[in-house]
Amino acid sequence: MCDDRSVANWGTSTYGNPCCECGFAWTTPIDVGTALVLDVVNSIKEQVASSTGNERHPQLGWSVRAYVCHVGDNLRIWAERLAGVLDGGAVQVHGYDEQKLARARHYDGISLEAALLALSRAVGDWYDVVARSPRSGVVMVHSERGELTLSDVVALNAHDCLHHYWDIETILGRAER
Ligand SMILES: [Zn+2]
């Protein structure tokens, strides 16, 4: 049985390497991953500019606006985790259930404009705290992913952004599934 709990191993076994859906490579370096997050968030803003946010795809569980809300929430949560570590806080962090969070926040009741504002603020905070985080060594221990370096965190976050950008493109008919 494989006991390698590395992010690259988890990502590869869950999605393939590169991800068989969005094409993300789990070995993406920190600087490339950081730039990717910024680029993808800008691309999401462009993709949804002519969207109502209500569009859906039969194979996907969320609407366009829900994916925008999720990407923003996920970046904000990871920025908060990294900020806590920088502040001398606990290095143990816990996963969250994204489906429960979506229901609790009533994603489909949030205006697309507001979701995009939240996403812009979240990516700014995320970028700021990543830039101040140590680039070597373990930065936190995640209850499900194990010990994480900054490189692992950036890879997880970059994949989440890219994968859901691909979901949004699929919903809007701009990507094949
Ligand atoms: Zn993917």
Could you name the key traits of this structure?
177 residues, mainly alpha, Four Helix Bundle (Hemerythrin (Met), subunit A), three-stranded mixed beta sheet, 3 strands, 57% helix, 6% strand, binds zinc ion
Structural class: mainly alpha
Widest beta sheet: strand line-up: 1-2-3
The number of distinct structural domains comes to 1
Q: State Rg.
A: 16 Å
Classify the helix fraction into a percent range. 55-70%
Ranges where pLDDT stays below 50 over 5 or more residues in a row are none
Mind describing the biggest β-sheet? 3 strands, mixed
The proportion of residues in beta strands is: 5-15%
Q: If you consult CATH, what is the topology?
A: Four Helix Bundle (Hemerythrin (Met), subunit A)
- Just give the CATH class: Mainly Alpha
- The CATH architecture would be Up-down Bundle
Shape: globular
User: Helix count?
Assistant: 6
The CATH superfamily is known as dinb family like domain
The hetero molecules present are:
zinc ion
Order of helices and strands: HHHEHHEEH
CA-to-CA gap between the ends? 32 Å
Give a structural overview:
The chain is mainly alpha-helical. The chain has one domain (about 30-170): Up-down Bundle (Four Helix Bundle (Hemerythrin (Met), subunit A)), CATH 1.20.120. The protein has six helices and three strands, in the order αααβααββα. Strands 1-2-3 form a three-stranded mixed beta sheet. Strand 2 and strand 3 form a beta hairpin. Helix 2 packs antiparallel against helix 5 (about 110-130), helix 2 (about 30-45) packs parallel to helix 6 and helix 3 runs antiparallel to helix 6. The longest helix is centred in the middle third of the chain and has 23 residues, at about 65-85. It is globular and about 45 Å long. The N and C termini lie far apart (about 30 Å). The mean pLDDT is about 95. The protein binds zinc ion (ZN).
